[in-house]
Target: EamA family transporter
Amino acid sequence: MVYVLASAICSVLVSVLLKLARRFGLDVGQMVAWNYVMACALAALLLQPSLAPLRAAGAPWFALVGLGVLLPVIFHALGASVRHAGIVRSDVAQRLSLLLSLLAAFVLFGEKLDPAKALGCALGLLALLGMVWRGEHGRGEGGSASWYWPLLVFAGFGAIDVLFKRVAAAGVPLGTSLEAMFVLALPVAFTLAAWGRLRGGARFTLRNALGGLLLGLFNFGNILFYLRAHRALPQHPALVFASMNLGVVMLGALAGVLLFRERLSRLNVAALGLALLAIVLLTRGA
Model:
């Protein structure tokens, strides 16, 4: 379980770094771009993927290109969500995106919906609504941005997971698919960063590059430790999946409340509890 904890910590550190970006004068767009430079290098070095599956006739290039576009776009959305809605709500929205991938599994991949997962879906939707609801007091803090960015994170990460399942169903090894996604995301991310600069954003600086490389280290660490957790506990995938999601939600809540003094209403706290219960139900037998 050490790998699960390390993966969850890296995931939360991604959100913490995005939260601190503006405080330290860092441009999130440039950080996201440089993040993929680090991710590409680490994937090639540590996973040593074979590119042969990408030359096969049935290679899922449509899904891979979709991931290459969505990954940096949703990374930007995550940065905006952390800034406007906070770490707690953003991490819950990201983790509850498994609702969408689960629904896709029922509709697209023929998985059967059992009562526990049906209840998990219902509780997860209630938890999502409870987390993005700010009430009268919270409306002035972030405006509509405090709820639509988490919802975009929820939808975006759900779509990413569905596309990733398409790639896995095509038989592409994980290391190969990760390297392909990172390489495809790289020009998209730098295009978005350049567009931001042309619209009056920050200049490209070494400071932003270093911040982005650090972001990439945490981002890839999240993936690497998660893979190693599954390898260490091959007979317990549901345990790894549930522990990872629960760990991120709980550590994210602690980081948001203790480090950044994020305020949660009673409804938000109740929704956090529902989210934890929903994750347990949704990952039973996964």
Q: What stands out?
A: The chain is about 80% helix and 0% strand. The chain has one domain: 2-282. The chain has a mean pLDDT of 88.
